[in-house]
Design goal:
This protein is an alpha+beta fold. The chain has 5 helices and 11 strands. It starts with 8 loop residues before the first helix and ends with a strand. The model has no long low-confidence stretch (mean pLDDT about 90). This is N-acetyltransferase domain-containing protein.
């Protein structure tokens, strides 16, 4: 039997993170039969279903058909094996899973910028505004996430302006790195510094995530190994 690919825990880690965000909104999902499902409305940018196994039997399609959600809800096909176009979905994007081994070196960088974990609701609101590029309307990340065990919001900057940040979440014996950002004009060295601070908060743990396009290239340049593909689908209106 061949060993599991090193990026595979990223699938479960990401589903656990989706569930944590939904729990913070008071709408947790459930894990069942190789899927994470949430039949309730979810925050913006988050799916209502995440596949946890590589299913080609049709069981996943049956489970999705039972959700009966209105509007354009999403499915994260973690193994890029589902053909959902014929079932009323549009492909939003395709990406690759990423994995950084616990022993992999992290490039050193020194931008001179101060980094800190987000600790208060006010700091979290400022973080979300910097991440989204606009003043928060409907919040994606409510303050309840600050109490979630194994979750750290990291930010670089001062009280006047945040220049970079990301979220680290520990689950499935890995650290998921997500929602990373650098504002326009911020030094690229902040990416390496973010990674170093994630390592400092979770020493001796592999780091996982997913990206596509230029962001995929950027994280690979910092040592991440590219894994298997994933796809995100959106249900068509009507």
């Amino acid at each position: 039997m061949s060993p599991s690919p090193p990026w595979l825990p990223a699938v479960r880690n990401n589903a656990e993170w989706c569930d944590a965000v939904c729990r913070a909104h008071g709408r947790p999902g459930r894990f069942e039969d190789g899927l994470w499902l949430n039949p309730a409305p979810v925050p913006a940018f988050y799916p209502n279903a995440v596949t946890l196994t590589e299913d080609r039997t049709g069981a996943t399609l049956h489970a999705l058909s039972r959700l009966e959600l209105p509007g354009r809800w999403g499915v994260k096909d973690s193994f890029a094996t589902l053909e959902l176009a014929a079932h009323g979905f549009d492909l939003l994007f395709e990406a690759r899973w990423l994995h950084l081994a616990a022993t992999a070196p992290v490039p050193e960088a020194a931008s001179g910028m101060a980094w800190h974990p987000v600790r208060t609701p006010q700091e979290l609101e400022a973080w979300e505004a910097a991440w989204s590029g606009r003043s928060p309307g409907a919040r994606v990340f409510p303050p309840a996430l600050l109490q979630e065990e194994g979750v750290v919001f990291l930010a670089a900057g001062d009280e006047k302006r945040l220049l970079a940040g990301g979220i680290a979440s520990f689950a499935a014996k890995t650290v998921g790195l997500s929602n990373t950002f650098r504002v326009e004009g911020a030094p690229a060295a902040l990416d390496a510094e973010l990674l170093a601070h994630v390592r400092a908060h979770f020493p001796g743990q592999p780091v996982v995530g997913y990206e596509h396009g230029e962001a995929l290239d950027a994280w690979q340049a910092l040592g991440f190994q590219s894994g298997g593909p994933l796809r995100v689908w959106l249900r068509r209106e009507g």
